[in-house]
Design brief:
- By secondary structure, this protein is of the alpha+beta class.
- The chain has a domain at 3-48 and 87-162 and 190-229: 2-Layer Sandwich (Dihydrodipicolinate Reductase, domain 2).
- Helices cover 29% and strands 14% of the residues.
- The chain has 7 helices and 7 strands.
- The chain has helices at 18-31, 63-67, 77-80, 96-107, 171-182, 190-209, 226-229, and strands spanning 3-7, 37-41, 117-123, 126-132, 138-141, 149-153, 213-214.
- Strands 1-6-2-5-4-3-7 form a 7-stranded mixed beta sheet, covered by helices on one side.
- The protein is globular and about 65 Å long.
- It starts with a strand and ends in a 13-residue tail after the last helix.
- Residues 1-20 and 30-36 have low confidence and may be disordered.
Length: 242
């Protein structure tokens, strides 16, 4: 019998704290989550092109430096709130989305993996995605008529696991300093964060192209898909290099 466990709150702050993760995992474990399972997050907007009109550059603002490697564009104060604009950001998808996907992949033990396929869906104008992992786990984004985050699962219950917490003192900064001194991995391990951000960026590309994609995590490319591969990186203005 398939059961559904729903979480209607959490995860909408600027950072996902350890307590939020513990709450999610504790509830999911109590419900008996077993893989393969499905985790669904609410829809998160992607960045859009910016066509704001030119304004006078305020005194003391080095607009060329602010733009950095991004394409040249005229100054407009609206650009300073950079998250909505494609030239500078992935939108909410790479902002709050990183925390939502990070919590979801952590809860169902796929944070060491990247999806192998992103399935684009459009049902009467409602767009949503399904990420497929090689171990059978499905991760939905923007699934119709769902709450913020919920788990669909079947099979035998899995035992609860220990949820990592910040080490040292002082939250995320204290954790980082402690791990530098002790040569340990921090709570927010960068290698795992890469996998979380891959979910965000793969989704953005699927939404931009409005089609499904195959992804090769080992080579970090879309096999045989030149159109999608062009969006894996972006051109940078000289003299900026990476």
């Amino acid at each position: 019998m398939t059961k559904v466990f729903t979480i209607e709150r959490c995860f909408m702050r600027s950072r996902i704290r350890a307590a939020n993760r513990r709450e999610f995992l504790k509830a999911a474990a109590a419900a008996g989550v077993a893989c393969p399972c499905i985790v669904t997050s609410a829809a998160l907007g992607i960045a859009q092109p910016c066509n704001l009109p030119a304004q006078e550059i305020p005194r003391g603002v080095d607009w060329e430096m602010w733009l950095g490697p991004a394409p040249w564009a005229p100054f407009n104060r609206g650009r300073l709130n950079f998250r909505p604009w494609r030239d500078y950001s992935g939108g909410v998808m790479t902002d709050i989305g990183a925390h939502l996907f990070g919590a979801a992949t952590f809860a169902v033990d796929i944070r060491e993996l990247q999806p192998v396929e992103v399935i684009y869906n459009d049902e009467e104008g409602h767009e949503f995605l399904t990420y497929r992992y090689r171990n059978g786990v499905l991760l939905h984004h923007g699934y119709p008529d769902q709450k913020l985050l919920h788990v669909v699962y079947s099979g035998d219950p899995k035992p609860a696991k220990e949820v990592p917490v910040y080490k040292g003192k002082g939250g995320i900064l204290g954790d980082f300093l402690h791990c530098v001194k002790m040569r340990e991995k921090p709570f927010r391990d960068i290698e795992l964060a890469i996998n979380t951000m891959a979910v965000c960026h793969l989704g953005i590309i699927a939404y931009q192209l409005k089609r499904s994609l195959k992804w090769d995590p080992a080579n970090r490319e879309f096999p045989g898909d030149d159109e999608a591969n062009r969006l894996v990186d972006r051109a940078r203005r000289e003299p900026w290099v990476l």
